[in-house]
Amino acid sequence: MSTAPRLTALDALHRSLGATMTDFAGWDMPLRYASERDEHVAVRTKAGLFDLSHMGEITVTGPQAVELLDHALVGNISTVGVGRARYTMICQEDGGILDDLIVYRLGETEYMVVANASNAQIVLDALVARSTGFEAEVRDDRDAYALIAVQGPESPGILKSLTDADLDGLKYYAGLPGTVAGVPALIARTGYTGEDGFELFLKPEHAEGVWKALTEAGAPVGLIPCGLSCRDTLRLEAGMPLYGHELTTALTPFDAGLGRVVKFEKTTNEGRFVGREALEKAAERAETAPPRKLVGLIAEGRRVPRAGFSVVKDGVVIGEVTSGAPSPTLGKPIAIAYVDAAHATPGTTGVGVDIRGTHEPYEVVALPFYKRQK
Question: Whole-structure pTM over 0.90, yes or no?
């Protein structure tokens, strides 16, 4: 028995704009509106508008909210100030990554955890299970929010025209309550594109009005609506991991080159957190003999690598592609891959990707492929 996909508050609007829709993590989402290349370029050079209402919001409140989060997640949540956000992960006891998350501290004892759409239920269930013994409440707020992102160099100017919130004072990975186009919103300076931009959490019934206001305010500077397809190429160029590709339960944060998010020096709960022992061992392994490292690959030819394709050198498999696509910014196919540490040094040549039996030549580069000029 198949269940019908969930629809965001902007579903009718996407269809009226002629979006190509796709099922993503049980949601009907816009893949593209016209040309995914044009959408990608708009975000890099002007601005793009995204519906991200499929993301999973979970609110954690109560006197021991921070103790619960420090126990359940690998990050040090007690050092996040009110109005700030942190990128972190939730791991299994064996150190495998259940999801990567952003945690916003909304108040003294109130936090919002934002999970990936495909893992929202898993993260919710894990937080509920891990809340036993803590004076804290875990609430599923997925239906309480729509999420709209405006990303790209023109995004601060566009948003400024619709809010009196202090955007200039809003740092990267911070969020503040304000009004946008006359309705209340949490305005966060976060994103998944490698560009400056904002994510706006608002009530679903306000989503359409805010989307239209942003569209109107952004039209003179080239803002266009953008789908999931260009979101993927943007994050790929920016070297940002995607759950299910670069991050899985088979990998620890150290395997993924993201050991920095694991904070062993936490003082809450006597420094204990779920997965700590396994992660200490993973940290040691990563230092002494890392099995594989996450690298960038740039094609010499035109053929596009895809997730699951083998990385080879001298006829021997040395790794696997986790994400691949044509890069509109570089004008060449690119990939992120896990490769044996011996071949992971940037500048390594003679590496190939097995594309349907042909070993296409690639060069190993450091991530990210693209970094915006500040």
Answer: yes
